[in-house]
């Protein structure tokens, strides 16, 4: 972030994490059958199964389980705090005099987001495989992967937001450029 125009990279990355979080929250691919016949799929909110010859899915809510509510709540709380951090980052980088302590606070909140999301992402597969009968070969799939991708981006942004005040002068452009000049006697090949 050595230039003033580059300051929008971090809010842009937070926006990307929000998009991946939305995909994870809405996606039905947290757990899916690995191969045909596709007899099981699950989202953060429900688990669906069907027979090998049946075309209709039979779904049960994961909100009936304590661990299902816990996984959904922790991931959702982390997502809401992420949206708040995104709004704060846009505000922080929009003002001319950047408040670097404010930026460091956003980084701290992002670590809280990561903690909540990791808790939800760990509770889900552990308890799901313990309490829901699995049919066939299954895998944790694309929507679950988007949840982890969002969390990894949040962790990276948290480090950058926390470290950004260390480069305050570079970001604000307060450092004079350094010119390297050598005299003709020292470098005769320049003539």
From TrEMBL:
<keyword id="KW-0812">Transmembrane</keyword>
<comment type="similarity">
    <text>Belongs to the TMEM47 family.</text>
</comment>
<feature type="transmembrane region" description="Helical">
    <location>
        <begin position="105"/>
        <end position="126"/>
    </location>
</feature>
<protein>
    <recommendedName>
        <fullName>p53 apoptosis effector related to PMP-22</fullName>
    </recommendedName>
</protein>
<dbReference type="Pfam" id="PF00822">
    <property type="entry name" value="PMP22_Claudin"/>
</dbReference>
<dbReference type="InterPro" id="IPR004031">
    <property type="entry name" value="PMP22/EMP/MP20/Claudin"/>
</dbReference>
<keyword id="KW-0053">Apoptosis</keyword>
<feature type="transmembrane region" description="Helical">
    <location>
        <begin position="12"/>
        <end position="31"/>
    </location>
</feature>
<feature type="transmembrane region" description="Helical">
    <location>
        <begin position="146"/>
        <end position="167"/>
    </location>
</feature>
<dbReference type="GO" id="GO:0005886">
    <property type="term" value="C:plasma membrane"/>
</dbReference>
<keyword id="KW-0963">Cytoplasm</keyword>
<dbReference type="GO" id="GO:0098609">
    <property type="term" value="P:cell-cell adhesion"/>
</dbReference>
<keyword id="KW-1133">Transmembrane helix</keyword>
<keyword id="KW-0130">Cell adhesion</keyword>
<keyword id="KW-0965">Cell junction</keyword>
<dbReference type="GO" id="GO:0030057">
    <property type="term" value="C:desmosome"/>
</dbReference>
<keyword id="KW-1003">Cell membrane</keyword>
<dbReference type="GO" id="GO:0006915">
    <property type="term" value="P:apoptotic process"/>
</dbReference>
<dbReference type="InterPro" id="IPR015664">
    <property type="entry name" value="P53_induced"/>
</dbReference>
<dbReference type="GO" id="GO:0005737">
    <property type="term" value="C:cytoplasm"/>
</dbReference>
<feature type="transmembrane region" description="Helical">
    <location>
        <begin position="72"/>
        <end position="93"/>
    </location>
</feature>
<keyword id="KW-0472">Membrane</keyword>
């Amino acid at each position: 972030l050595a230039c003033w125009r580059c300051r929008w990279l971090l809010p842009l990355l937070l926006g990307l994490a929000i998009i991946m979080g939305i995909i994870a929250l809405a996606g039905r691919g947290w757990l899916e059958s690995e191969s045909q016949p596709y007899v099981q799929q699950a989202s953060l909110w429900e688990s669906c199964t069907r027979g090998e010859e049946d075309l209709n899915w039979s779904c049960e809510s994961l909100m009936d389980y304590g661990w299902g509510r816990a996984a959904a709540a922790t991931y959702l709380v982390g997502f809401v705090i992420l949206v708040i951090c995104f709004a704060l980052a846009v505000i922080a980088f929009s003002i001319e005099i950047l408040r670097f302590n404010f930026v460091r606070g956003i980084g701290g909140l992002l670590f809280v987001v990561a903690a909540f999301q990791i808790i939800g992402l760990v509770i889900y597969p552990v308890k799901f495989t313990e309490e829901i009968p699995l049919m066939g070969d299954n895998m944790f799939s694309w929507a679950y992967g988007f949840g982890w991708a969002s969390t990894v981006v949040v962790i990276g942004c948290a480090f950058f937001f926390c470290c950004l005040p260390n480069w305050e002068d570079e970001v604000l452009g307060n450092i004079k450029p350094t010119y390297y000049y050598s005299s003709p006697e020292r470098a005769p090949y320049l003539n």
